[in-house]
Design a protein that fits this description.
Bound molecules: adenosine monophosphate
Distance between the termini: 8 Å
Radius of gyration: 16 Å
Number of helices: 8
Order of helices and strands: EHEHHHEHEHEEHEH
Strand order of the largest sheet: 2-3-1-4-7
Largest sheet: 5 strands, parallel
Helix content: 40-55%
Structural class: alpha/beta
Mean pLDDT: 92
Oligomer: single chain
Length: about 210
C-alpha cells in the first residue's frame, strides 16, 4: 500500500504516520525527520537545508527530490509524511518509477487548533515520540523512553505563523491536485488522538 498524509503543521501527520506504519506495516518516510537527521549529522545537504528549516520555509525541491527518490527506491509500501508539499513535488512523486498512490489522507485542522497544539508539542530527541506538554507527568520526560523532552526549534509562535502561511499558499493546491485525481480522503483532524486514528483507519480501509 502507498499512502500520503497531507495537512498543516500540527495536524498529527507524524503520529498517524507512525501508527499506520506499525499497523499495516509500511515504511514511514518523513521528509522533516530525514532533513533534521542531515542537519544533526552536519552533512553537506544538512548545511544547505538548515537555513530554510530554521526560517520555517520550504526546502527547495532540487535539494530534496534526490533524497526522496533514493528513499522511495528502497520500498514499495510506504506512508509519506510531509511530502509532497507543493504541486511541483506532487508531480515529481507521480513521475517516480513504482509509485502508484492508493490514497492521500488529508487531516483537516484549523489555524487556531494548530497554534494551540504546537505550543504544547514536545518531542523526544531519543525515540522520536511526540507528546503534548500537559499530557505527561512529569511533563519533562518522554512517556515512551524516559528521555528529557524538548520543543522543536521551529515550533515558536513566529515560525508557526510562517509555516501555516506557507502551508496555505503552497500545500493547499496539493489537496486539490489529489482531489482531482479521485484519491483524496478528507479526515477531520480534530478531537483526541484515538478519534483521529479511527477516522484515518476507516478512510484507509475504504481505499484498499
Ligand atoms: P516537518 O517536520 O514536516 O514539519 O518539516 C520541518 C521542515 O522541514 C519544514 O518546515 C521544511 O523546512 C522542511 N521540509 C520538510 N518536508 C518538506 C518538503 N516536502 N518540502 C520542502 N521542505 C520540507
Amino acid at each position: 500500500m502507498q499512502l500520503v498524509l497531507l495537512g498543516p503543521p500540527g495536524a498529527g501527520k507524524g503520529t498517524v504516520a507512525a501508527r499506520l506504519a506499525a499497523t499495516f506495516p509500511l515504511t514511514h518516510i518523513s521528509t522533516g525527520d530525514l532533513l533534521r537527521a542531515e542537519v544533526a549529522a552536519g552533512t553537506a545537504l544538512g548545511r544547505k537545508v538548515a537555513p530554510y528549516m530554521k526560517a520555517g520555509q520550504l526546502v527547495p525541491q532540487d535539494l530534496l527530490g534526490e533524497v526522496v527518490a533514493r528513499k522511495l527506491a528502497t520500498t514499495t509500501s510506504f506512508v509519506l509524511d510531509g511530502y509532497p508539499r507543493t504541486v511541483e513535488q506532487a508531480e515529481f512523486l507521480a513521475s517516480l518509477p513504482g509509485v502508484s498512490l492508493d490514497a492521500v489522507v488529508y487531516l483537516r485542522v484549523d489555524r487556531e487548533e494548530v497554534v494551540r497544539r504546537l505550543a504544547r508539542r514536545r518531542v523526544c530527541p531519543v525515540c522520536g515520540a511526540t507528546t503534548a506538554a500537559d499530557e505527561t507527568s512529569p511533563s519533562t520526560s518522554c512517556p515512551a523512553c524516559g528521555a528529557k523532552l524538548a520543543r522543536r526549534e521551529d515550533d515558536d509562535a513566529a515560525r508557526v505563523t510562517k509555516r501555516f502561511e506557507v502551508y496555505l499558499t503552497e500545500t493547499t493546491p496539493v489537496v486539490e491536485f489529489y482531489r482531482a485525481r479521485g484519491i483524496l480522503k478528507e479526515v477531520d483532524g480534530g478531537g483526541t488522538r484515538e478519534e483521529v486514528w479511527r477516522r484515518v483507519v476507516d478512510a484507509v480501509a475504504a481505499a484498499r
